[in-house]
Fold this sequence. Notes:
Elements lengths: L2 H8 L6 H19 L16 H11 L2 H23 L7 H18 L4 H14 L1
Helix pairs in contact: 2-3, 2-4, 3-4
Amino acid sequence: MFSEMINDLKNGCLPEPTPLKKRLRFAFTKKLGIIKQPYLLWPPDPKQNPPATHLLWAAIILEDADSIALATDILIQERHEKMAARAGSLKGKNIHEREAVIQSVLQDLNTLLPPGSLQSMMQEKIRKFFY
Length: 131
């Protein structure tokens, strides 16, 4: 669903904002419907179940604070559901764990980008919303 965005980033350019915004809204609709289901019923296909990391990356690119907050919440919910399915259950959400997950996803985005002005621009966007 976000392969074009990822390819653009790998090639050192930002994706077009208008189609990315439409894709992000559509992906949020899909993702919110999926995470309401039991984890074992979640489809593995990224076109049906867009990765939460990609939602967060797109929201950062668009500099949309509401989408960043929603994507972050979805990311944490997704991680907890996966862990609960593997370990049985989780009690409460640990704020330190939340920070670690977010930092890991942001580092993955930074690693994806080629060195240069796009990487610097994205680091500024990340600082704007997370530091």
